[in-house]
Amino acid sequence: MSAFFRKKPSSSSKNPAPVAASSNSTSDTLGTFLKTDQEIVFTRWWNMHLMQIDLSVDDLTEDIKSGVLPIRLLEVLSNSSLGKIHENPEGKLFKMLENQNVFLTWLKKSDMKLVGIGAEDLVGGNKTLVLGLTWTLILRYEIHKFDTTHQELLNWVKSVGEKHRVAADGGWSTMFNDGLLISAIVLDAVPGAIDLEAARRMEPFRALSYALDAAEELLGAPPLLNASDFNGKTISDRSVILYARRRALGAAHRTRT
C-alpha cells in the first residue's frame, strides 16, 4: 500500500456495521430486485446517520416498520425533534401506524413531495416504496440541500478527472470501476496523498480497492460502496450519485481545512 499512498492519513472515520456484498442488477427501477446495490447502499446511508445516535438497521424494509427508526433518522437529518412517539410499538399495529403518520406528516409539512405512499405501506414492508422514499430523503438532505444537481455533480467529477488526465467515460454506472477517478478526487483534495501513476499501473480491482480505502481515510466519509460492489457489475446511477456526493462533501471539507 505504501506505493499507492504517499503519506499516512492524518484522520480516521467511523464505519457503519458491515453489510453483505451486493447482488448484480442492471435496472434502476425500484421494483425489480431482491437485494440490489440500491438496497445495500441505501441501508448503509441510513446507518451512516443513525450511528450518530447509536442506532442501526439491518433489514431496511423490516426494521423501519415500527416507525421509530424513520423518526429518529429524520430527527438527525433535520436537527429537530418530532415530539413524543411510541418507543416500543412492535406488534401493536395502531401504534406503528401512528408513528409512521408522525414521520410522513412531518415530511409533508416540510414541503417534501410524497406520491402514493402512506403509513400502511411502510408498516406493511413495501420495499419499492421504502426505497423510493429513501431516495427522496437523499435528494432532499444530500443533493438538493447543497443546491447541487446531478449534472453539476457530474461536471465536477469530470473536471477533476480532466485536471489529472483521467477519463470520466461511460456514465455514473461505470466511470469509477478502475479506481482512477476516485484516486484523482482524493489527490485533488489532498495534494501528494496518492501516487496516481502507480494507480494507473495497477490491476483495476486492486487500484479501486486502494482508492476507496484512501477516500474513506483521507476524505472522512463512511464507505457507502466497496470494491466488490463495482467488480464486474453495472451498479445503479443512484448508488454512485450518492457515493460521489459524499465524496464531494469530504473533498470540499478537506480543502477548506
Automatic annotation (TrEMBL):
For the region Disordered, give the residue spans: 1-26
**What species does this protein belong to?**
Chrysochromulina tobinii
Q: Where is the composition biased (Low complexity)?
A: 10-26
Q: What is this protein called?
A: Gelation factor
The major lineage groups are: Eukaryota, Haptista, Haptophyta, Prymnesiophyceae, Prymnesiales
Q: Which SUPFAM superfamilies match?
A: Calponin-homology domain, CH-domain
Keyword list (alphabetical) reads: Actin-binding, Repeat
Using the record's annotation, list all stretches that form the Calponin-homology (CH) domain. Answer: 36-142
Q: Which Pfam families does the record associate with it?
A: CH
Q: Which GO terms describe its molecular function?
A: actin binding
| Xref: InterPro entries | Actinin_actin-bd_CS, CH_dom, CH_dom_sf
Q: Which domain of life is it from?
A: Eukaryota
